[in-house]
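Annex B. Sample input.
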Amino acid sequence: MKLGMAGWLLGSAIACAQTQPKFEVASIKPSNSADHRLLYNIQPGGRITVANFTLKRLIQQAYGIKDFQISGGPGWIGSDPFDISAKPEIATTNYEQIKLMLQSLLAERFRLVMRHDTREMPVYALVVDKNGPKFKEATESGPGMTIVRRGRLIAHTTDMPALADDLSNFLGRVVVDRTALSGTYDVKLEWQPDENQVAMFQAMGVPEGFGAPPPDGHGPSLFAALPEQLGLKLESQKGPVEIFMIEGVERPSEN
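Annex B, continued. Sample output.
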């Protein structure tokens, strides 16, 4: 469904609608653990356990959007982490239902209200380089798996829209699939992150160590690694980008 430029409100009125699924019980507490690793775990039946997530990261999880698509709000939404444990009213394994329940939780406990708009903004188009792709079709079927470390991405049984979405996390800009490749593939990409990408990896909670770039700092940039290793490239264009503007939010009570 195409969304108009005028936008519309997301938040309490939508999240509390009768048709919106909700968690039956939920505990929200400020994180005070010395372990700052991020955790977002969906257990059988739809129970979720979250650790060290800021509200901004929770919004990204609930609405399937990126950090750069969120505008406004007080500074604490991106700095103060929370721990959450929540159990659904009705057991479910449907990830989209769990996202809707998380939207309800944010509206009810954080009093979150957002206005949605679509703007024409710079984007990257992911296209095939002149010599063609340098990766092979996946040999297995079923759900894909992607492993991300600083400066390394390994994806099994992925498609090009999913790869474009992964790349947007590192670039701070929407990446649109324009490859016209419709299969599923196994890909491996290694590059030397720049300072902005290192900060993004840190914000995403991506650990150092395995897959870290060489210490001499002479690895290829992401833009150079794509054509060299995958036979793909990024082209700067303009296109519609969804923006979510925070118009109301409060710190939650702990129970």
